[in-house]
């Protein structure tokens, strides 16, 4: 049994590292945050399509085949929500530390439960409330740790929280069509929707869509291939072959790796308050997830930043 789980666990850690390193690619990009997001999804679409054609498609449920074509458009519309998540996440990376951006983006499971309560009337437990309060307290510590005149840290932190809200909405929307599509198809069509939204927005913000050098072009290819396709794909594969409880590991590993990359490559040494705040945020998220209903775990196969 241990040998059977070795490859999925390895894929889980590789996926978390690939996603965390995406922040380095965004920082190294010659383009603005929104334009980098355009290339991230635009270059990923043909790769995801190729993967979809090569890999055997799972057998659809009875009656699902007739619904698939009708729901693909809805899946593209789901990508409109994901566009807000991705663009804001890239902006958060540029305005605050990689560790804080990753930590705050991983608040998404809390917004999934809150959204389920607001939209679908689902109840949440006292355990979830405890976790939510802890996560919010840790968030306040993270943002407050670098409140200094002339810095963009607070804005980056706020954008990180909004990123999580968008991603929570995306997960809820995907859950409505998840029975008709596999993970690769969800990623491909939602990436198409994201691309269509962000393509005109980037020039409107004054961001160029054309990298200046070949190195800049390769950075965008790496962002799409390593972080978007391999990172999210590896985590989706891992969580499909591991117990549901293992999904919480991604919430712990990715921000830690982002902190390591930020410190080692960008000199973003965490302050003491950020250490404490990060631990409190992660603990709050794990507690809140334990207090959520089993149905809220349905989207765990695509819960990756």
Give an overview of the whole structure:
- The protein has helices spanning 2-28, 33-42, 44-54, 64-95, 98-105, 108-120, 126-144, 153-175, 183-204, 214-241, 247-266, 272-290.
- It has 12 helices and no strands.
- Helix 1 (2-28) packs antiparallel against helix 10 and helix 5 packs antiparallel against helix 11 (247-266).
- The longest helix has 32 residues, at 64-95.
- By secondary structure, the chain is mostly helical.
From the N-terminal CA to the C-terminal CA, the straight-line distance is: 28 Å
Mean pLDDT: 82
Molecular shape: globular
Strand content: under 5%
Estimate percent helicity: over 70%
Question: What's the Cα radius of gyration?
Answer: 19 Å
